[in-house]
Amino acid sequence: VLSMACGSTDDSTDSSAAVVPVGEVDEALSEVSRTMFADRTFTAEDYVSAGWKRSKQFDDISTVPEATEVYFGFFNARDIELRIYASHDSAVSAGADAAAANIDESNTWAARPGAGRGTTQFDAFTVAGNTVILCEFSIDVCVALATDVGG
Predict the structure, then answer these.
(1) Cα-based distances in Å from 83 to 9, 115, 125, 135
(2) Sheet of 33-36: strands edge to edge?
(3) Are 130 and 39 in contact (CB under 8 A)?
(4) For the chain, what is the mean pLDDT?
(5) What would the pLDDT profile of 98-108 be if each residue is shown by its tens digit?
(6) Which stretches within the chain are classed as H helix?
């Protein structure tokens, strides 16, 4: 079971403070997950305004528990899936669980001998307010997008 680590952001004027995550989703996922902006609510348009390029909205999101909207797009030349939830609590509980499972499935698929890359494989995620951002390759891309949208 995933649980959010407690933490707080530094309110000093240090410009690096904005990219310091609130906490890890789970110690076992510390290299690939972060939580940020627990008190904020974001829309897909907020992410578009921050530079995320929306490509597709998924109509059938029944496989993403509690999500209200799911989108695929790009940020900094990387694949990004954006999952929007009704609240931060829902994003942390159901959203982080689903994201962790998605990362595990991607890594299992990638480890198969001779397996081709037919779909995007996400290697990291960030819970930012009421959203879960799944990122290709690196947690740094997730954190950069969350920081851009959260200000």
Answers:
(1) 23, 27, 11, 11
(2) 33-36, 124-128, 131-135, 78-85, 67-75, 53-57
(3) no
(4) 76
(5) 888 887 665 55
(6) 44-49, 88-90, 96-111, 139-150
Q: Which amino acid is at 1?
A: V
Q: How many other CB atoms are there within 10 angstroms of residue 15's CB atom? A: 7
pTM: predicted TM-score of the whole model, two decimal places: 0.74
pLDDT in tens, 48-57: 999 999 999 9
Place of tokens 């609240």: 87
Instruction: Give 113's pLDDT tier (boundaries 50, 70, 90).
Output: very low
- DSSP alpha helix (H) spans, 42-138: 44-49, 88-90, 96-111
Burial 24-47 (b: 16+ CB within 10 A, else e): bbbeebeebbbbbbbebebebebb
Length of the chain counted residue by residue = 151
